[in-house]
Amino acid sequence: MASFTILLLSLLTITTHATTTTTSLYLSPKTLFPNYNNMLNSFKIFIYAPPPSTTPTPTLFTTPQQSHFYTSLLHSPFLTQDPNHAHLFFLPFPSSISTRNLARHIRNIRINFPFWNRTLGADHFYLSAAGVDSSSDRNVVELKKNSVQISCFPTSSGLFIPHKDITLPPMHSFQLITPSVNDVNGVNVTYLGYMKLTAGQTPSNLIEEISDHPEFIVEYEPVSKKENKKEKFKNSRFCLFVYGSDMTWMVEAMASGCVPVVITERPIQDLPLMDVVDWSEMAVFVGVNGGVKRLKRVLDGIEKSRYERLVESGVAATQHLVWNAEPQAHDAFHMVVYQLWLRRHTVRYARWVEQ
Asked: Exposed (0-12), middle (13-18) or buried (19+): which is 168, by Cβ within 10 Å?
């Protein structure tokens, strides 16, 4: 797994102008950092043992961000060996587990520990890259309905419950090149928009229209080294993404001063850190209807002051969306844990009383 560390200025020490600009990036700017510090000092998580496996070296998680989150959590000060001191309980199980075995695992947790029954799993969380599908088994129903699911962004339709579930930011290794003042002002640009598609991806009518427009450029991966060195998205005002396709390089685009434009057929409710940041302050969301003419009209209609705010907020938010080899303050690992911290007072669906 590729690991990297990106050093960005802390938002606590940036200039007065940037502070004014990026304050609106946060949904609750006055309480975020005090709550974050409280989390560092008191948050405790108890981890159950994974279910038994028939393979000698079972693979729990299949994506790098899942594995990195799990490894970071195991080596973090948030762990407690005493479940009575825990705010939340983590249920690790392999992504390949069958619904039947998952139900059996939850049933064993219910029988052997008192914590599940007292909340019906509402103070528990688990990792599942694509999400847990529906089932008629009571144990899986309670897991899906009550427990916090941590999935990979973007999620599968219907397997994510907004306001309860969380998504992990994508993991994508890149070298940070801090945008210049001219980049922020949109001076050093060649294209209005840049789009990068994976090889073999079938282009939609909209993508074909974008490809034919002279103010947009569309490239397919893998690109040649010569083309890669050009890094055309850094010479574009906006970077275009189709929701549900490859969005792993969105953070890289933001860090380089290229404002993300997400093309989507429906409202997006599974963006990373939705409890923390206001995505409308660092990205543009456009529907698929209207073709490239409407897309260009929307982008051309963004005033210079808002464009500069989008760039600055996107650069500032990058520190919360990157995965560091060793977790750093306010990075992706800590902000995912912070979202769990916000859920520690979740609704109790049932109260277990010891007899």
From this structure: buried
The pairing of strands 259-264 and 284-287 is: parallel
- The Cα 171–Cα 201 span in angstroms is 21
Q: Are 88 and 125 in contact (CB under 8 A)?
A: yes
Tokens of 35: 């709550």
Encoding tokens for residue 61? 């998680």
Q: What is the DSSP letter of 212?
A: H
Closest CA to 67 of 41, 39, 95: 95
Distance CA 278, CA 100 (A): 39
* CA–CA gap between residue 349 and residue 355 (Å, rounded): 19
* β 191-198/124-127 pair status: unpaired
List Cα–Cα distances, 186 to 57, 193, 292, in angstroms.
51, 12, 21
What does the alpha-carbon distance between residue 35 and residue 10 come to, in Å, rounded to a whole number? 17
Per-residue pLDDT in tens (0 to 9) along the chain, 355 residues = 443 333 333 333 333 333 444 458 999 999 999 999 999 999 999 999 999 876 766 688 989 999 999 999 999 999 999 999 999 999 999 988 999 999 999 999 999 999 999 999 999 999 999 888 888 899 999 999 999 999 999 987 778 999 999 999 999 877 665 665 555 555 567 899 999 987 767 778 999 999 999 999 998 876 555 455 346 777 899 999 999 888 889 999 999 899 999 999 889 999 999 999 999 999 999 999 999 999 999 999 999 999 999 999 999 999 999 999 999 999 999 999 999 999 997 655 544 444 3
- Tokens 């034919």 belong to 212
Q: How far apart are CA 286 and CA 268, in angstroms?
A: 11
- Give pTM, 2 decimals: 0.87
- Nearest alpha-carbon partner for 38 in 347, 349, 345: 345
Torsion of CA 340, 341, 346, 352, to 10 degrees: 100
**Residues in Cβ contact with 61 at an 8 Å cutoff, skipping those fewer than 6 apart:** 67, 70, 94, 95, 127, 129
